[in-house]
Each structure stands twice: as C-alpha cells, then as structure tokens.
Please model this.
Amino acid sequence: MDTRTMAIQAKKASIQMQGVSTELKNSALKKIAEALIVRKEEILEANRQDMERSAAENLAAPLLKRLKFDEQKLNGVVDGIHSLIGLEDPVGKTLLARELDDGLRLYRVSCPIGVIGIIFESRPDALVQISTLCLKSGNAVLLKGGREATLTNRILTQVISEASLEAGMPEHWINLLESREEVNEMLSLDGYIDLIIPRGSNEFVRYIMDHSRIPVLGHADGICHVYIDKDADLKRAVDIVVDSKTQYVAVCNALETLLVHKDVAEKVLPALKDALEAKSVEIRGCERTRGIISCKAATEEDWKTEYLDYILSIRIVDSLDEAIAHINTYGSGHTDAIVSQNQESINRFLEYVDSANVFANCSTRFSDGFRYGFGAEVGISTNKIHARGPVGLEGLVTYKYKLIGDGHLVADYASGKRRFTHRDL
Model:
C-alpha cells in the first residue's frame, strides 16, 4: 500500500476515532498488553535478528543500545499501558462554558488532533508508547521507525493492530511505514496528516522541519545541565550527577554538561571524578577544572554537544547567574537542574532558566512522561506553542468550539436589538 493511500485511510479512521468511548479504548489497551505478553518470544526473536544485523553493519553504539528490546523493556511498555488505562480520557472535556446571551451557549471541548505522523530512530519501545498514547487520545497514527528495527517494528505493529481490531477499534488507525522514500512522501501529505513528531538526531529533526508544511512538534537536541551551587549538599550533588549522566546515557534527558560554582569546585570535583570514572565516564573540563582534576580539555564545541555517551563536559562558573547564562546560551531548552540548599538560588534558577523542564535537587532523568504520570510520552517538546516538555495524553488533543443557539441572528446584535451577556457558566 502506498503512503498516500495509507494516509487517506488513516484520516477516515481518525474521524471514527473521535467518537470511540473511553471503555472501548481501555478495552483495546488491555488486549494489546495481553497480546504483547502472549507473543513475547516472537517479538524478542525479531529484535535479536535486528540486533545481529545492525551489529554486523556497525551501527553506532548509542543507537544499538536504543535498538535493544529485551524482556525488561517489554515488561516496561506493558506496565506503561496499564498505567495509561488508569488515566483519565483527555477527549470530551469541557474546558470553557459561557453564555453569550439568553439561550446562546458556547463550549470549548477537547478533541483528538486527527492523524499524527511519527518518525523515530532505533527504539522499538517508542513504537508501543506512541501508538498506545495515540489510541487513548483518539488519534490515528502513521509510524516510521529506523531501518535497523524493521523486524521488531513490524511484529509490534501487527500485535497492536490485531489486538485493537479484536477489541473493536476502527481499521487502519495504526499504520507502519518502512522505507526512507515513504518519509518524504509523508511530509508532503498536509491534506491528511495533522501533526508530525520526529524523534532522532539534531540533523534529522531539522530536516523534517525544513521539508514539510505540516506542523512539527519535538526537540532537536537534549543538551542537559546540572549546576552545583555554592550552597549544595555535595554528597547529594555527586549522587545526582552520576544518576543524571550514567543511569542511561543514550537518551535525551541524560546530563551532558556539568556546571560547578567556584567556591565548591575543589571540594566536589575529586569526588565526582572518582564516582564518574568508576562508571567509565570520560571527563572533559575547562581550564579551571583541569587545574583541580586531571582530564581532557573541553572546547567550545563541547558545550554545544549532545554526547549520548559516557562523556561529560565540566565548567567552573563564578556565580549562579553565570550558570544560568551558560545554560540559556548553550542548552537546548530540554532539561536543566540545580543542586542547592539555598531556596533563593533555587527559585532564581527555576525562574530564569528557559527550558521545558527545570529541576531542583533531583536527577535530569526524571524528565519523562511515564515518570510524570502522563502514561509515557510521544516525545519531549522544546516548543513553546501547543505542548512543552514530555508530551503525553494532554499534548495529543486540541479543542473545538461548540455553539448552541435557538434561532439567534448576528443582525440582532449588530442593530443593537440584542446584547451579549458573556456570562461564564
């Protein structure tokens, strides 16, 4: 089936999905979770084949790590589906109710976006998270994963599609694209696709933004920072830095640049060096950092780099404001954290760092839809319009206005015969 036909069918399915009940959506999600467990061995075998082929083709180590879909990741996505079932349906909520005049009532009501095209690299778990979020929010979806995950994505889409159809969902609500040519065709289908969400490298996301008239939601980079303030609990700071950097390095919310106040640098950097090197992290430091600990020299390019690897750049700063200025200059607006016991410093950091997620005294790795209780996420957005931060259910709906009258005519208001009351109900 060609991409245009797929998009046309998805558009028809999206109209049907607008009226699907919460009960039916939750029933379909339950069947999907059950089917993923029942067909576990098929799924894991497909991933083993993808891993073997990709390793033989010398796929980059961070992408290979993202590609792996083992039993632990399978259980994780199933847990995410059960969490999603427990969340309130975001569709059909009355966001505003206003009387314009006697018998003329205006309502703003949440509704699905329609057809969402999602392009992602390597991670098969993203396919499950994205498609189930689209189902719960009433959207049809076109999915395009990386070539490296072809077999895994194929079996996952088949399992999800068959289980949801058995539950009574509309046909063609979920669709899988497999070739690079299909991506370019998808980007031209602004008559059928309402939103594109790309997940991948900076260059990849920029390409999508530059080659489509369809609105694009997402982020290009995940250059995340932790700032250790002069009033930080230093043991806590070491623990937070290590978790932010090493808990899982190949993700957009992992720490890439550490900023340290000059007053605590000599105390905390040796302990940080020991803890990071114990996790095989390569440190690249500014000149002042290298005066305290031995490490590679950091360049201007390091402050702009998302490593997605066991590499961390460190810079010593003279003040909180210098740390904020560095983050707002070099950061990607994704996730940045301060470690401090000074509430005034914390408040200033949270107020003036211009990022989608700003944290105090906790790991950057908490920047995640599942951890926020959003039922996983389709991605993390650094946009400032529509949705920002982890995009879960609420970011996958828009709204429409419903106006209910009783023979009301604009001419009566233009002539002064009638007047608006504009009373909130």
Q: What stands out?
A: The mean pLDDT is 94. The chain has two domains: 3-218+383-401, 224-366. Residues 104 and 256 are 55 Å apart (CA to CA).
